[in-house]
Amino acid sequence: MAPTAIDPTIVDVVQPKKDNLNLPSESRKRLEKADIDLSGGYPYRPAKPLYLQDVQKIRETYREHNDPGARADPAKSALFAAAEKVVDLTTHIGTEIVGLQLKDLTGRQKDELGLLIAERSVVFFRDQDISPQQQKSLGEWYGEIEIHPQVPQVPGVDGVTVIWPELQATESKASFRRPGGASRWHTDLVHEKQPAGVTHLHNDTVPTTGGDTVWASGYSAYEKLSPDFRKIIDGKKAVYRSAHPYLDRDDPTAGPKYVERTHPLVRVHPATGWKALWVNRAMTERIVGLDKAESDLILGYLFEVFEKNIDIQVRFKWTPRTSALWDNRITIHNASWDYEGTQPRHGTRVTALAEVPFFKDDAPTRRQALGLATED
Which InterPro entries does the record associate with it (predicted)? Predict the structure, then answer.
């Protein structure tokens, strides 16, 4: 299915502007090699919707999602045989594949990569020669590409967003005490009716020191809970909000409001069939059916399970031209701003939307499915 376009005839907007910051040299080389037209300014800034109702209309229609990982060879023989090396970075989360170019993967290898991401949560590839167009093409293998209504994009390549802290600082200045932006635990696009599946971030320029990204496993966070506590949250739903606020057309003086969706607290991945905790501090608002004090207490504990257990996390040191592909259905992540803008960082991101989140009571945990030590 083609990406959902934003109909300009129904959207009240703030007009886009051109940004003329200095692109890092390696980023410019990559974009020019890909024949990206930079003459009109970079990045392209779409006109911003003003009203909540318009944003909610963008993707209201149900889309069938068939996860490529569900049809993959469990042994991943085509992918692994072609790689020079496959290295698990921690026991529970994170794998690096050496010696493969993402742009050259066959269909069978893409399916197997999808399953590997579903099992290991995030997979890394260094020294990638990949254009924004090729990045988008790979993303389309994993689902409909999300076209955000207001974030910066690569000119002429809808759905390839620009991750550039220097640009972000022109609107919201970061500081050591309040780095903001992606420097908080979050999961992408939880407000969507069918939220994000696989996200691919390619960083063509990174600081020489710092700027690491940390991911935490939703499978393992769920497994950290006692079996009796799991019974409390299994089947419960929570309200998840958008990162960006909008005005209510019916009550514009009420102040900014967020797009909200209701999804399961615990979801099941369609390729692995494993249960994962699915909450994040930035965008999970409240548990449906509980009083605020009860909801705050439980959510606060669940956030800390994710954030404080370092054995279920992987911290990745970027190098130039590195790609990370992670599954938003089973992870949260946090980008460190410890370099404090002293060096440039620039990348492009593509996110494939997945299924409507679902829960199955009889689904196993990851440890149960893999026959690991019993849980007590």
Answer: AtsK-like (IPR051323), TauD-like_sf (IPR042098), TauD/TfdA-like (IPR003819)
What's the chain look like in SS3? CCCCCCCCCCCCEECCCCCCCCCCHHHHHHHHHCCCCCCCCCCECCCEECEHHHHHHCCCCCCCCCCHHHHCCCCCHHHHHHCCEEEECCCCCCEEEECCCHHHCCHHHHHHHHHHHHHHCEEEECCCCCCHHHHHHHHHHCCCECCCCCCCECCCCCCCEEECHHHHCCCCCCCCCCCCCCCCCECCCCCCCCCEEEEEEEEEECCCCCCCEEEEEHHHHHHHCCHHHHHHHCCCEEEEEEEEEEECCCCHHHCCEEEEEEEECEEECCCCCCEEECCCCCCEEEECCCCHHHHHHHHHHHHHHHHHCHHHEEEECCCCCEEEEEECCCEEEEECCCCCCCCCCEEEEEEEECCCCCCCCCCCCHHHHHCCCCCC
Q: So which residues are the catalytic ones?
A: 186, 188, 333, 349
pTM score over 0.85: yes
pLDDT tens-digit readout, 83-134 = 999 999 999 999 999 999 999 999 999 999 999 999 999 999 999 999 999 9
| Residue 337 confidence class, pLDDT cut points 50, 70, 90 | confident
Residue 180 has pLDDT above 70, yes or no: no
Residue 213 CA, chain-centre distance (Å), reads 12
* Whether residue 374 has pLDDT greater than 80: no
